[in-house]
Design brief:
The chain is of the alpha/beta class. It has helices at 26-33, 41-53, 57-77, 97-104, 117-127, 143-148, 150-155, 176-185, 206-221, 230-235, 250-253, and strands spanning 83-87, 109-114, 133-137, 163-167, 192-198, 241-242, 248-249, 270-276.
C-alpha cells in the first residue's frame, strides 16, 4: 500500500486499573526473561520459581529472539518480503521486529498484534510517531478479526507476499493448526511463516521429563499452555516449502561455529522453522 495511505488507526485506551496485578502476564514474564523492566512483583515471583526448574530459560528466550531476527533478515534478503505481521508480539523489547526489518529495508512495514493490556499500552507509546510500524489490539487466535482490524487493512497489502511471525506463542493456542491455516490462506504464494514452538517429545526420556517440568510450572500461571510433540509441530508447516535446515531445534539451526546456546538440553526444547507458501 502506498506510504501516504498509511494511517495509524485509534487503539483502545488502557487504564492502569484495568491491568490485573494479582496474576502473572505471559507478555510481561517473557519480557522479564529477556531482561525487560515492564513487569510487576507477581511476574518476578513467578519467574524466580521458573528459573529454579530451568535456569537456562532466560538464555533460551534470548536465542529465540536471535532466531526471529535471523528469519526476518532471510525473508527480506532471500524472499524479498517487505511487510510483516507479528502475531502475539508481546512487549516492545530489544530486537523489535520493526527495528530488524527497517534496518534491512527502510521501506518495510510491520504490524504488531497482541491483546495483552500491558503490551497494548507500551505498543501504543512505542509506535505513536512511527510511520512504518503499526499495532493491532486483537487476539491472534481469531484470524478473521485480526485480518479485518483497521491497522492491518491500512498497513498491509494482502495481495502481495507477507511474512507471518509466530514466535513462542502457539503453545497458548488450544488448536493452532486451523489458526495457522487461516492466516496462510489469507496471503498469496511467496509469503513466509516464521515459527518457534516449545517441544515435549512425551516419550519418557530425559528431554521429555525436563520439558514436562517446565510445562507444568508454566501451567500454574497459564493453564491453557501446551507444549507439543515434533509431529504436532510439523503439522503447522505442512504443505509449505521449508527453508534449510528445515524444522529443527535451536541447537541445529546455526552452524557449530555460530552456536551461542550452551548445549545443556535447553536448546532442544524449542523447534524452529522458516517456511515459504508455494
Amino acid at each position: 500500500m502506498p506510504e501516504d495511505e498509511h494511517t495509524h488507526s485509534p487503539l483502545r485506551a488502557v487504564e492502569p486499573a484495568a491491568i490485573d496485578l494479582e496474576r502473572a502476564s505471559q507478555a510481561r514474564v517473557y519480557d522479564l526473561l529477556l531482561g525487560g523492566k515492564n513487569n510487576f512483583e507477581v511476574d518476578r515471583q513467578f519467574v524466580q520459581e521458573l528459573l529454579k526448574i530451568a535456569p537456562e530459560i532466560s538464555e533460551l528466550t534470548r536465542q529465540n529472539r536471535r532466531w526471529m531476527a535471523d528469519a526476518i533478515d532471510r525473508m527480506i534478503t532471500e524472499g524479498r518480503i517487505d511487510q510483516f505481521l507479528d502475531l502475539g508480539a508481546g512487549l516492545p523489547t530489544a530486537q523489535n521486529t520493526h527495528d530488524i526489518a527497517l534496518r534491512a529495508n527502510p521501506a518495510a512495514t510491520v504490524v504488531y498484534v497482541d491483546n495483552d493490556l500491558t503490551a497494548i499500552s507500551h505498543g501504543q507509546a512505542l509506535l505513536a510517531d512511527d510511520q512504518r510500524s503499526f499495532f493491532a489490539d486483537a487476539d491472534l487466535n481469531d484470524p478473521a478479526a485480526v485480518l479485518a482490524h483497521p491497522s492491518v487493512t491500512a498497513a498491509l497489502d494482502l495481495t502481495r507476499p507477507v511474512g507471518i511471525l509466530l514466535g513462542l506463542v502457539l503453545h497458548s493456542t488450544p488448536d493452532p493448526v486451523p489458526v495457522v491455516a487461516d492466516y496462510l490462506a489469507a496471503v498469496p504464494s511467496g509469503s513466509y511463516l516464521a515459527l518457534t514452538h516449545p517441544l515435549n517429545p512425551r516419550d519418557g526420556g530425559r528431554l521429555s521429563e525436563f520439558s514436562t517440568a517446565i510445562e507444568e510450572k508454566l501451567q500454574d500461571a497459564f493453564p491453557h499452555m501446551r507444549f507439543r510433540t515434533r509431529d504436532q509441530i510439523a503439522e503447522l508447516v505442512e504443505g509449505l516449502e521449508l527453508v534449510a535446515p528445515g524444522l529443527v531445534d535451536l541447537t541445529s539451526w546455526w552452524p557449530e561455529d555460530e552456536q551461542k546456546l550452551n548445549l545443556t538440553g535447553a536448546g532442544q526444547l524449542l523447534l524452529v522453522a522458516l517456511a515459504r507458501k508455494p
